[in-house]
Amino acid sequence: MSDPNAPSRANSMPASLTMPTVPQDFPDMSNDKVWVWDTWPLTDSKGNQYSVGGYDIVFSLVADRSIGFDDRHVFAKIGYFYRPTGIPADQRPANGGWTYGGLVFKQGVTGKIFADQSYSHQTQWSGSARIFQGGEIKLFFTDVAFYRDSSGHDIKPYDPVIALSVGSVHANADKGVFFTGFDKVTPLLSADGKYYQNGEQNPYFNFRDPFTFEDPNHPGDTYMVFEGNTAIKRGTPACTQADLGYQPGDPNAESVDAVNQSGAYYQMANIGLAKATSKDLSSWEFLPPILSSNCVTDQTERPQFIFKDGKSYLFTISHRSTFAAGIDGPEGVYGFVGDGIRSDFQPLNGGAGLALGNPTNLNYLEGFPFDPDYNQNPGAFQAYSHYIMPGGLVQSFIDSIGTKDNFVRGGTLGPTVKIDIHGATTSVDYTYGHGGLGGFADIPANVAFSNSTAEPKK
Questions:
Q1: Which is the catalytic residue, given 44, 143, 301, 331?
Q2: Quick one: what percent of the chain has pLDDT higher than 70?
Q3: d(CA 138, CA 169)
């Protein structure tokens, strides 16, 4: 898909799959209070997004702005924002009109679940939030403990746990939005080493980002997808012919030996699946992964399902830097389509899988968000951690915009864009917003909360 003749700083990717370039003079949704990155709305099991008492509500990973943006991961906490609902994006303040409500958890609550209390850092990573009758919220997230010495070196592997906390949401004109509860955490899943790689197999393993839903083909059953890694010992030359995925007779097909010799076996991400075994969603069992990217990429972050026209669309996000040797693609959303949640998923858009990418020039090195390459497109790092909303709206956070001689860091949500999903294809809707860019941090609810619309209490 990439144009091999695209010159320095041009986008080499198809415009139909490329997010328009975000300007450098973007507004900050938190008014300089916190860094903001992974963000998710308040939903039901079908992905509908709820307003409560006249307010839209989102949860975000946040960190104090006294911390360097690239150091935020070990200091991440879950915060929340709210704003009046039902106002068109072009009638809101430039930053989306959000009010920062503060942190969800009080100090110390999320650290209690770890058997080893000697952690140096205890942090919270992304997940999803479901609303039930009575305003009850089940917040699924990744509870994490790091064990590091004073120099920042790991003493032992970090410990990520997919967890649940239950609270209630309240909203009124005087106080805005606030929560009660969220004073207890229930551990749900830890990487098992059978389906999902654990710290003994790889100290750098991925296990995070729970997204819960009900499958239309199995009414009443609740499932969860999450990011994992295939359960093998790190460094094992484990690439197989099936992992390579070449069609018979492909003249460009590599041999298994060549791929293993390239070191591609270090890229072993998968998308995991679990099923709730209790009505209150407090106990779960692992199922085998529904998609493996062995020898393709090492990250399949924030997976989620969209169900449309009888098809199951599985979306995830990945970095250019995490692809295996011999494979390249922009930062962005990758998608697959099947007839159910356990399908022979096919990558969207002619087999490429790319559903929405940053403007990127694959003819040049990428660099890093804190040091982008001089020849790279200015938008190569502009957006990450995408979340797909009803109707194909997509939100993400700004990481870095610009090139080596002129770039700015982000730490706030970028403009919402829209993708059209039809069959096995997606395309950017350039008629949405202004040239394809909607309002900054625009995450509109499509359902107003009431006990008649929320899910029965479980």
A1: 301
A2: 100
A3: 10
